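ingest -> validate -> predict -> emit
validate: passed (alphabet ok, no gaps, 318 aa)
predict: started
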Amino acid sequence: MNKTFRFIKTIRNRSIDVSIWVVLFGLVFILFFANDQYTNINNYMNILREASFLCVAALGMTAIIITKNTDLSIGTMIALISVISFKIMPVIGIWPTILSAVCLGILFEMINGFFIVYLKIYAFILTLGMQYIYRGIAYIITQEKVLQVPVKEYTKIGNSNLFASGSFDGIPLPVILVIPLIVFAYVLLHRTSFGRKVFAVGNNEKAALLMGIKVEKTKFLAYVLLGFFNGIAAVMISSRLWIASAEMRPNYEFDVITVVVIGGCALSGGKGNILNTMAAAVFFCNDIKYNKSVQRGSLYAVYYSGDAFGDGFFHSQN
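emit:
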């Protein structure tokens, strides 16, 4: 009887894990027949391009939420990294700037992680405060102005297409760039000892500690991982927009967290899947012209409240 119950439970868990994919393909199917624009593959490429900018930071945020933490500062952090990058780019060049952006992302998240993990400051409070600090520094650097990209070739990262042919505009470069990042994040979280530690810490910190897992180190490294992806996201977004300012991509952090929750991460920790996060990013970036704010606001309310009362709609139940 117990074996039968466990088997049914396993099947149920798997069906819930793939539900975001069912919704995504269902949405594509409906739009294909309901809107003539969606019979053109170039529109799907544009959606994938926008999803890639969201997906990059969401990959790192997945690890953070699995460990039962969060980061509300990533939007202004990315703005600050972009502002600094535009300032130093004419001096050191494009490639050193990209490397510097990644290093800055890691450094900023190491600061966040230190205060949250080792000084035991609540992640919500600390990152909300850091959000204002990062924005303030960006205002000081830019003197409240919008910076234009100093080297035009830099914009190719976010705007170029490859393999164009005939009426097909090609595959956006950001989509190609995000694929190895997804593979890296998937292998790291689902196929390594570090990933197993992340899930163990998120499920039960005390049990993880008794198993010999260094809980604080694991949490801190999760923030370092988020910083790595934030740096890359800053490069991709700023190159796409051609500008950098203290107010670029408002509410980006809420979009990222919503995508991660839609993809199956429980805010209570211990659950998450990189591939589901990827699918959720595409679902979230579907090009619905009307009531976009209503759509996003509804997603915020429904998924966060769903997680508060249980595990949300797309979460495996234990």
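Strands lie at 147-148, 161-162, 171-172, 243-244.
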